[in-house]
Amino acid sequence: MTTSARTLSPLHLFLPTLFVLATACGDDEAPSSSGDTGAATGGADETGETGAQSGLRFWSDVAPLYYDNCVTCHREGGVAPFALDNYADAVTWAAASEQAVSSKTMPPWLVTSDGSCGDFLNSKALSDEDIDTIVSWIGSEQAEGEPRDDLAVPDTGVLSGPTSYAAPEFVPEIVGGALAEFDEYRCFLLEPGMDRDTFLTGYEVVPGNEAIVHHVLGIVLDPEAEGEPGLTNRETVEAYDAESPDRAGWPCFDGAGPETDDKSIPVAWAPGQGVVDYPDGTGVAVAAGEMIVAQIHYNLADPANIGSSDQTTVNLRFEDEVEHPGVMLLPDLFLDTLYGSEPASLPHGEESVEYSWSIPLGFVFPEFGADSMKLYGVLPHMHDYGRRIDMRVSGPAGEVCAADVQAWDFNWQLMYFYDNPMTLTADQTITVTCTYNTLNASEPVTPGWGTQNEMCLMGLFLVPE
Ligand code: HEC
Fold first, then answer.
1. Contact 137/58 with Cβ under 8 angstroms?
2. CA distance linking residue 460 with residue 378, whole number of Å
């Protein structure tokens, strides 16, 4: 295991010098505030038992909502385990669907999107009205109505003008040890050296084997920066790759590898995300000569998948000029305690454990020669014990809620871009608070990169002003 303080992100470099507030505390708050209990009551239906007259028909009222919001995944051959594109399946899955839409776990869109904490581009959250329609139909006699065949799923988008990179065909193995019980994180060199200065403005990941590819990061490295002591990043990556000649790529729990110096992480993909376009006019700089590494997180928790292979394709769109060049940082001061003399840990056996960290932005912005930066997007990230994560921005003018996930789900790690990017100033502080349920842990939960450890990460896509 790595013990040295190397970079997970550019921010990592100067974290040790920051004045940082980080606390972990046990379950001393009212457990009733837990989001978990909400699901039990969230499904309650005022219209009473099935059989009541709602006047709603599946094909005219509910199917259009399902096709728009569910059928992309819930169809034959889709990523979801059952279909919702026909009446019979919709009835079979009615009770579960009522629960899923009223607790807002489906469709997968984790950030609160009711306007109380940020406004997000391309929100996939259902409106309250749509939830009402679905719940009322399920709570009524579930009438079918006149079948129709004119419904289609929305276009999931096509990435224009991409450069396609194919990762090698690979059979993952469980190698994580205590830090990642069922996982392998493997890195592959996609781009050995960009041929020009450019900007990454969009991406799309096509997993070869959807059952095992849990997330993919695209990481940019300056080949000349120092990686392993005395070696450049390029030499470091070559050395890692050479260690296992019989298997493609190299192990990389820590960004692009245990000792690489990662410049930025502009690609963060999880299943169901589809095409990701950076907001209008923005993009992440990739300079001539820089390398791009894909970190693929394989999960083999289901033994049926052991021995199966994957070949993932990463499509990246580059543009040679953008109006607002940005940076992607991945701060996690919980994870960073691994590098200190006393790593943090979460007490086990608690229904609600909170960990919170803060960064005064005055320490961050000078690094980018900026007095202020615009926050264009966030990427919340925890593992299986995670329940809630939020980010607040506080300063002389008060406190603003910037992002809030009330029902964290490890399977759905997405990047969320803002409708109206927020200007952050050097006199402000960001505070990220993560809440975990450690009832299933048999010992204290330590920070780490495997799904059995925890993280408290809030990726930030920032544009210096
Ligand atoms: C982006 C893909 C995607 C979309 C869109 C989606 N689902 Fe799902 N759904 C899944 C997957 C995958 C699962 C399996 C469990 C998981 O991975 O979360 C699932 C599971 C479910 C379940 C099983 C119970 C549960 O909550 O896990 C229900 C019910 C469900 N979805 C209903 C819906 C409904 C209703 C919609 C639309 C309003 C919807 N889903 C939209 C992918 C999707």
1. yes
2. 5
Closest CA to 167 of 187, 184, 183: 187
Neighbours of 9 (CB within 10 A): 22
192 upstream amide cis, omega within 30 of 0: no
d(CA 311, CA 241): 18
> For 376-399, b where at least 16 C-beta lie within 10 A, e where not — what string?
bbbbbbbbbbbbbbbbbbebeeee
Q: Are 196 and 289 in contact (CB under 8 A)?
A: no
Contact between 317 and 190 under an 8 Å Cβ cutoff? The reply is: no
Tell me what pLDDT residue 215 has: 83
Quote the tokens at residue 276. 């990701």
For residue 421, how far is the Cα from the chain centroid?
Answer: 19
* Measured distance CA(248)–CA(255) in Å, rounded: 17
Compute, in angstroms, the gap from residue 69 CA to the centroid of ligand 1: 10
Mutate to test the pocket of ligand 1, among 58, 62, 66, 70 (most ligand atoms within 8 A of CB): 70
Q: What is the pLDDT of residues 151-201, one digit of tens each?
A: 998 776 789 889 999 999 999 998 755 445 677 889 999 999 999 999 999
Q: Tokens standing for 210?
A: 């959807």
What amino acid occupies position 190? L
Q: 73 C-alpha vs ligand 1 centroid, how far in Å?
A: 7
